[in-house]
Amino acid sequence: MARRSAPPGSGPAYYSGAPSRRGALADPNESAFSAFMREEVWAPEKFPGNISILVGVSVFLGGIAAMRTWGELMIPA
Which domain range does residue 57 map to? Predict the structure, then answer.
């Protein structure tokens, strides 16, 4: 069986060749927290996942609040 290989000059398969996001766009005086917020929270490509996490946490906390408020009504008398 013949072995297929990558085209000549394509480079290693594990290296994308794209510049990193922390390259020239990052401010050298930016704190780690503000870099995290910019890259993980406010990034448009991560918006659907962040909304999903927010909805899940809201439903969880709403369930806790509902049980604390109306939990006694669920106990049969």
Answer: 47-77
Question: How far from each other are the two terminal CA atoms of the chain, in whole angstroms?
Answer: 77
Q: How far apart are CA 69 and CA 67, in angstroms?
A: 5
Contact call for residues 49 and 43 (beta carbons, < 8 A): no
Q: Give the chain's largest Cα–Cα span.
A: 79
Task: Output the six-digit token pair for 48.
Answer: 């659907």
- Structural domains of the chain, count: 1
Q: 53 Cβ partners below 8 Å, 6+ apart?
A: none
The alpha carbon of 20 is separated from its chain's Cα centroid by a whole number of angstroms, namely 17
The 10s digit of each residue's pLDDT in 23-53 is 456 688 999 999 999 999 999 999 999 999 9
On whether the CB atoms of residues 20 and 13 are closer than 8 A, the answer is: no
